[in-house]
Amino acid sequence: MTNTPIELGSFWLPKQSSTVAPQVDQAWNAVYWVAVFFFVLVVTGMVVFSWRYRRKKEGEVTSDVDHNTALEVIWTLIPLGITMGLFTLGLRGFINASVAPADAIEIHVTAQKWSWSFTYPNGTTTAELGVPKDKPVKLVMSSTDVLHSLYVPEFRIKQDVIPGTYTTLWFQATEAKEVALLCTEYCGTGHSDMAAKITVMEGPKYLEWLDANGDGADKPPAERGKSLFTTKSCAGCHSVDGTRVVGPSMKGVFGKMEDLADGTQVKVDENYLRESLLNPNGKVVKGYQPLMPSFQGQLKDKDIDAIIAYLKTVN
Questions:
Q1: Helical H runs in the chain?
Q2: 224: pLDDT confidence band, cut at 50, 70 and 90?
Q3: How would you classify the pairing of strands 157-161 and 195-201?
Q4: Number of C-alpha atoms within 13 angstroms, CB side, residue 233?
Q5: Going by C-beta distance under 8 Å and a sequence separation of 6 or more, which residues neighbour residue 263?
Q6: How high is the pLDDT of residue 193?
Q7: In the prediction, which pLDDT does 1 show?
Q8: Mean pLDDT, the chain, as a whole number?
Q9: What average pLDDT does this structure show over 241-250?
Q10: H/E/C letters for each residue in 96-153?
């Protein structure tokens, strides 16, 4: 992912870039200024009362008045009215952010340690999210391993992504730009690197982008495999330059003998690579943990063939 700077917005929050953002900021500002007002009120009252009712001489006693009904009713009803107002303000924004418009584009999001993949209605899958400007987009999200959380600061959207179930959220971007997408749920050692880029485009450019990022069926197998290696999040755990990360590096791996955790050896050939994609914990490389999720049902035979063709070229 390229570094995508977040444009400056208010003192506390980044720039608003979606139709949901103004309501979120309105609720935030209301809570903030109410808190500021009562902080000043309470602290000022403490200082004034501490000075006004300090003991002035020895033997002085406090008043025998133990309560004031009118005052107690007032300081109960006023906070109640304020909290109900804040609740209503927040509820309006929550409901709006929870119910996607009927004409929203539905994009499926898959989270796994430590990357994102996005699948569009035409079957295209990418590692970065592309969306059209001024068009509602609904994200249907799931995780293949642990709990993640998708967060886009400029859109003011955040939702947990949970294994074994689907969660959703929606947004409508208001500017053609690039924004950052982050994971805000600690999900392991690569959590801080689990980021992606959202590119917001004008309608015609979005359609061109979607067409250009198709499944690449007409590409040579190795080239298509290279694309799948990225979009299927393999690159998040396996380097191609020899760097040790979560999983073994793929540099020069094809054809070599690999030491396994059970003390045996295996030759890295087509069968081993296929088995590693479909049953990754069957033969774990020595020195690594069995963390890789299975791609059973996620990759077609031609996809597996393409990835293997690509790995043969990584030297």
A1: 21-52, 69-98, 203-212, 221-231, 270-278, 301-313
A2: confident
A3: unpaired
A4: 25
A5: none
A6: 83
A7: 44
A8: 87
A9: 88
A10: HHHCCCCCCEEEEEEEECCEEEEECCCCCEECCEEEECCCCEEEEEEECCCCEEEEEH
The two structure tokens encoding residue 261: 């955790």
Reduced to 3 states, what is the DSSP secondary structure of residue 167? strand
Distance CA 245, CA 220 (A): 28
Sign of CA dihedral 132, 133, 137, 142: positive
263's enclosing H/E stretch is: none
Confidence of residue 255 (pLDDT cuts 50, 70, 90): confident
3-class SS of residue 45: helix
Residue tagged 């809570």 (tokens):
31
- Coil, strand, or helix at residue 88? helix
Report whether pLDDT(6) > 70.
Answer: no
- 93-131 confidence digits (pLDDT tens): 888 888 889 899 999 998 888 888 898 887 788 888 999
Reading the block at residue 168, the tokens are 């959703």
**Cα–Cα distance for residue pair 96/22, rounded to 1 Å:** 11
Q: List helix spans (H) across 218-266.
A: 221-231
Encoded amino acid at 67, one letter: H
Roughly how many angstroms between the first and final C-alpha of the chain, as a whole number?
23
Nearest to 188 by CA among 289, 259, 94, 272: 289
